[in-house]
């Protein structure tokens, strides 16, 4: 192993120590705030994300740059983000207003981490439930949006490796169609620096691009989804590193 590779392992390990040891601390602090408002619980929970983004910069030399902040609307909206890494689950909390995520319900059963998610009103769905899952997303998503919380959707449903593209699911677009809220598309290349299911970081600068809001009023969910997918994937092709030849 080269000296640079060994240093990456050490620095990534240092980041991992803080990442994992702070989960129960912030989760329990969030749970203890259950008598208070969402804003208070959210403020406590997101301190964990901000701490780890700061530590990621100083331990692993990994930063990020956002293009398109002017596209973030003042009104509550639905975020459609590419999902490549753990990183964006931290960074979206710092970039956008208070939010809830749409996620698989199994995550709520994870000790500490799941408890914190429950305290900030995550929309936990059974991905195998089909139409019922979409109905749940619309019902709970509408309630979250009406109370001023943004809704984060990873439309491919799972993390995709750089250069890969999953099937975009209709649920988030149905939520937009039914509520009239705009979709804000987000593309980023975090998977090139922090791969899925890995804690070996590569130093550098992650690019995040926020697209113009996609209006939903008077449009079908299929049409909304096509436009969001086209923008995200076209932008991904522009900001992603070329894949090596097979």
Describe the model:
This protein is an alpha/beta fold and 246 residues long. It has a single domain (3-239), classed as Glycerol-3-phosphate (1)-acyltransferase (3-Layer(aba) Sandwich), CATH 3.40.1130. It contains 7 helices and 7 strands. It is globular, with a radius of gyration of 18 Å.
Number of helices: 7
How many runs of DSSP E, i.e. beta strands? 7
Q: Per CATH, what is the topology?
A: Glycerol-3-phosphate (1)-acyltransferase
Distance between the termini: 25 Å
Which strand order does the major sheet show?
A: 1-7-6-2-5-3-4
- Average of the residue pLDDT scores: 94
If you compute it from the alpha carbons, what radius of gyration comes out, rounded to the nearest whole angstrom?
Answer: 18 Å
Number of domains: 1
> What's the order of the H and E elements?
HHEEHEHEHEHEEH
Low-confidence stretches: none
For the largest beta-sheet, the strand count, sense and barrel status come to: 7 strands, mixed
What level of helicity do the residues show? 40-55%
């Amino acid at each position: 192993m080269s000296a640079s590779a060994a240093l990456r392992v050490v620095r990534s390990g240092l980041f991992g120590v803080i990442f994992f040891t702070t989960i129960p601390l912030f989760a329990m602090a969030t749970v203890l705030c259950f008598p208070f408002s969402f804003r208070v619980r959210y403020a406590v929970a997101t301190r964990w994300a901000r701490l780890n983004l700061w530590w990621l910069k100083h331990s692993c030399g990994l930063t990020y740059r956002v293009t398109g902040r002017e596209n973030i609307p003042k009104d509550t909206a639905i975020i459609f983000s590419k999902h490549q890494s753990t990183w964006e689950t931290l960074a979206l909390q710092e970039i956008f207003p208070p939010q809830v995520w749409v996620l698989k319900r199994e995550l709520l059963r994870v000790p500490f981490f799941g408890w914190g998610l429950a305290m900030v009103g995550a929309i936990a769905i059974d991905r195998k439930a089909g139409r019922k899952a979409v109905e749940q997303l619309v019902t709970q998503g509408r309630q979250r949006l009406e109370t001023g919380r943004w809704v984060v959707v990873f439309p491919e449903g799972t993390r995709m490796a750089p250069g890969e593209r999953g099937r975009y699911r209709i649920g988030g677009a149905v939520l937009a169609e039914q509520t009239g809220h705009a979709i804000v598309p987000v593309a980023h290349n975090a998977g090139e620096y922090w791969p899925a299911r890995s804690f070996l970081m590569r130093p550098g600068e992650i690019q995040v691009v926020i697209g113009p809001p996609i209006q939903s009023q008077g449009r079908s969910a299929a049409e909304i989804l096509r436009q969001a997918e086209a923008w995200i994937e076209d932008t991904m092709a522009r900001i992603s590193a070329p894949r090596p030849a097979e």
